[in-house]
Amino acid sequence: MPVEFKDYYEVLGVPRTATDEEIKKAFRKLAHKYHPDVAKDKRHAEEKFKEINEANEVLSDPEKRRKYDELGANWNRPERQTAPPREGFSASPGEGFEFHFDGTGFSDFFEQFFGSRGRPFSGYGRTGENGGEGESFAQRGQDIEGDILVAFEEALRGSTRTIRLQRIDPRTGESTTQTLRVKIPPGVREGQLIRLAGKGQEGIGGAEAGNLYLRVKIAQHPDFRVRGADLYYDLELAPWEAVLGATVRIPTLDGPVSLKIPAGTVSGRQFRLRGKGLPATDATRGDLYAGVSINVPSRLTPEQKALWEQLALKSAFNPRKTP
After folding, report:
1. What pTM was estimated for this model as a whole?
2. Which end of the chain is least crowded, N or C, by CB within 10 Å?
3. Which residues contact 299 (CB under 8 A, 6 or more apart)?
4. CA-CA distance, 293 to 269, in Å (whole number)?
5. Handedness of CA 14, 298, 29, 239 (dihedral sign)
6. Bridge partners of 81?
7. How far apart are CA 245 and CA 260, in angstroms?
8. What is the pLDDT of the chain when averaged over all its residues?
9. Strand duo 230-237 + 288-294: pairing
10. How many CB atoms lie within 10 A of CB 270?
């Protein structure tokens, strides 16, 4: 089944020669703009945010980016339009169905070339005796697998999502679509499988149907990085805030909070906000770590430059001097 090509470089607004840092900056800028929590048009923003995450999922991963760049101009060749069998995605010749997902947060293009595509299944199970007249064949339905994009907020509080699963018979082209409700539990982790029992391929000879497994991919957040249940945030300070101390507002999953910065704070220092991370396995929550980096102004007015020069003349501080 033909799929629509996704130009991930165009989605992020970067050239194909973009560096990893340029891709990271482009993603963060767009993610801030279209994050559903801040955008006015939430419906449009949600779809755009998913598209941005999908592009970043591919271009920020060296192996995925290499495959994508190799795919390039050859993406629409006829042999590219049907996903190759991977880990048992298609059953035995003449028996396999194609499966397409809608509502998981990923496009068909991503699922076909970069997503999860099924789980291995055992061969035919045989019942009956001695190969006689009463012999019959039974095969449990194949398990199928897809990816589901989960936002940080969903990982924190859990949610219920509605997805659509389309089954296509490659022999006849006939298709059926089933609407499924997926419960995402609080504290879900990257790579975790969510099981929908009996929603896989139908069994043969009266055998039970397989299961549908959705592999969780946590959507990258414009502000936070995740390690287990802990979150990490880059806290950028002006030089005078670090020297004199300040009270700054920083984002958390529960809303912005005030953080007191003591005078003399150095770059690299981490501030720990207890219980502001994701749910942990023991029903508690991880922590949020705000790591300090000190930024300097890139442009100065003549008056500002004069003040910095006065400070340089009056200060005895030398960062290169051995204590």
Report:
1. 0.73
2. C
3. none
4. 8
5. positive
6. none
7. 8
8. 83
9. parallel
10. 11
**3-class DSSP assignment, residue 211:** coil
125 token code pair: 């199970």
Residues 6+ away with beta carbon under 8 Å from 252: 273, 276, 288
Q: How far apart are CA 173 and CA 171, in angstroms?
A: 6
Residue 153, both tokens: 């907020």
The torsion region of residue 105 among left (phi > 0), alpha (psi -120 to 50) and beta comes to left
**Predicted pLDDT of residue 169:** 79
> Residue 210 corresponds to which tokens in the numbers above?
């397989």
pLDDT digits (tens, 9 = 90+) for 93-146: 334 677 778 888 888 888 888 876 544 433 333 334 444 455 567 888 889 888
Give the E-state strand segments of 7-152 in sequence order. 98-102, 125-127, 136-138, 144-150
Per-residue tokens: 103:
């509502």
Residues of the chain with pLDDT below 70 are 1-2, 38-39, 73-96, 116-136, 322-323
Tell me which amino acid residue 187 is: G
Distances (CA, A) of 315 to 263, 308, 309, 311, 312: 16, 10, 10, 6, 5
